[in-house]
């Protein structure tokens, strides 16, 4: 549950940050893919025989965030300078990202060729690969090197540190990624509530033109918000796949990652509070796990959890309407008294 909550925390923060600034970031799925692709490419390409594993992990994580920031900045630029609705721009960039990632991995050398039963899968970051020369031919082999082969470089073997969480939660996939996600959520909360930048972003969200009249650079803040939102969503993909537990299926053109869209109900349930996102993401993760167990252990279908999530989204979306109805009922009762 905690392992799968990590990408939900990050995409929830991405959507919540956009909402705070008056922008609906529905492009978290594409940004998540951009971060996934960049982090996997860096972590599986840099030889760990040259750089320490922890440094490769850090470089891959930062590369994923940078890729997401660049991808998120595109709808921000279109919104700020051409007044193109960010929802339309994000939907377009989502599918561009999906097909671009598919193409990048299709032509790359990162496809899992060591396991003959695998197809269209990228190596886990924890997989150890040796680039060797056998009889004058360069090839990639696993941890076991053929006799007489010359090892050129060793790649892979990168995974997020467990930090003792594997002992606390025995038999689970949880790792230090959950702590990184919580730390980022706390940082976003401090930035949005205690800094001038956070005030400016919220001012632009309340009224872009009034903020401009007050001397706030609304265009810059719109682009910055979408770039930060993209970096957060991408960090979710990076943390999930840099765990070393999960293989990435590169045929993404068939569907967009659900984590990008599940960040929307996470943010709505948390009322866009960065700290609340932590708990709502864990709750959503629990629902997903329970849905799988429903199918495995009972006669019920796992899609019942999707119905529950949909109800949560609708109730969260109509929160203001419900508050208005309650207010009117109270006013009527007060008048009748």
Main features:
single chain; 337 residues; mainly alpha; ABC transporter involved in vitamin B12 uptake, BtuC; two-stranded antiparallel sheet; 13 helices; 5 strands; 65% helix; globular
Chart the SSEs and their pairings:
Elements lengths: L1 H19 L7 H18 L7 H30 L3 H21 L14 E2 L5 E7 L2 E5 L8 E7 L8 H4 L8 H18 L1 H11 L1 H6 L4 H24 L6 E2 L8 H12 L4 H24 L6 H14 L1 H18 L1
Antiparallel strand pairs: 1-5, 2-3, 2-4
Helix pairs in contact: 1-6, 1-9, 1-10, 1-11, 2-3, 2-4, 2-9, 2-10, 3-4, 3-9, 6-7, 6-11, 10-11, 10-12, 11-12
Account of the protein in words:
With 337 residues, this protein is mainly α. It has a single domain (2-117, 159-302), classed as ABC transporter involved in vitamin B12 uptake, BtuC (Orthogonal Bundle), CATH 1.10.3470. It contains 13 helices and 5 strands. It has helices at residues 2-20, 28-45, 53-82, 86-106, 165-168, 177-194, 196-206, 208-213, 218-241, 258-269, 274-297, 304-317, 319-336; strands spanning 121-122, 128-134, 137-141, 150-156, 248-249. α3 runs antiparallel to α4 (86-106). The chain is globular, with a radius of gyration of 22 Å. It starts with a helix and ends with a helix. The model has no long low-confidence stretch (mean pLDDT 88).
Give a brief rundown of this model:
With 337 residues, the protein is mainly alpha-helical. It is 65% helix and 7% strand.
Tally of helical runs = 13
| Biggest sheet character | 3 strands, antiparallel
* Gyration radius, rounded: 22 Å
H/E order of the elements? HHHHEEEEHHHHHEHHHH
Second-tier CATH architecture: Orthogonal Bundle
């Amino acid at each position: 549950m905690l392992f799968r909550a990590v990408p939900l925390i990050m995409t929830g923060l991405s959507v919540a940050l956009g909402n705070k600034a008056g922008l609906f970031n529905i492009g978290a799925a594409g940004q998540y893919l951009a971060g996934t692709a960049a982090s996997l490419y860096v972590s599986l390409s840099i030889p760990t025989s040259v750089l320490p594993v922890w440094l490769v992990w850090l470089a891959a994580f930062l590369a994923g965030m940078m890729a997401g920031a660049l991808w998120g900045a595109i709808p921000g630029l279109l919104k700020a300078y051409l007044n193109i609705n960010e929802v339309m721009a994000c939907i377009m960039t989502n599918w561009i990202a999906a097909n671009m990632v598919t193409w990048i991995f299709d032509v790359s050398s990162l496809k899992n060729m060591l396991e003959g039963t695998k197809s269209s899968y990228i190596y886990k970051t924890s997989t150890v690969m040796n680039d060797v020369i056998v009889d004058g031919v360069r090839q990639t082999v696993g941890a076991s090197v053929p006799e007489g082969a010359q090892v050129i470089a060793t790649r892979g073997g990168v995974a997020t540190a467990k930090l003792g969480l594997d002992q606390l939660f025995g038999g689970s996939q949880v790792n230090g990624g959950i702590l990184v996600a919580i730390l980022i959520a706390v940082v976003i909360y401090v930035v949005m509530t205690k800094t001038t930048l956070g005030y400016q972003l919220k001012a632009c969200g309340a009224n872009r033109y009034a903020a401009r009249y007050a001397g706030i650079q609304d265009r810059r803040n719109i682009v910055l918000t979408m770039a930060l939102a993209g970096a957060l969503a991408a960090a979710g993909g990076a943390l999930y796949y840099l765990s070393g537990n999960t293989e990435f299926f590169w045929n993404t053109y068939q569907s967009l990652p659900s984590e990008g869209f599940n960040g929307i109900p996470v943010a709505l349930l948390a009322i866009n509070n960065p700290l609340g996102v932590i708990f709502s993401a864990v709750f959503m993760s629990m629902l997903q796990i329970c849905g799988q167990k429903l199918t495995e252990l009972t006669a019920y279908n796992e899609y019942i959890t999707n119905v529950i999530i949909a109800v949560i989204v609708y109730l969260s979306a109509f929160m203001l309407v419900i508050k208005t109805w309650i207010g009117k009922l109270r006013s009527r009762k007060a008048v009748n008294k």
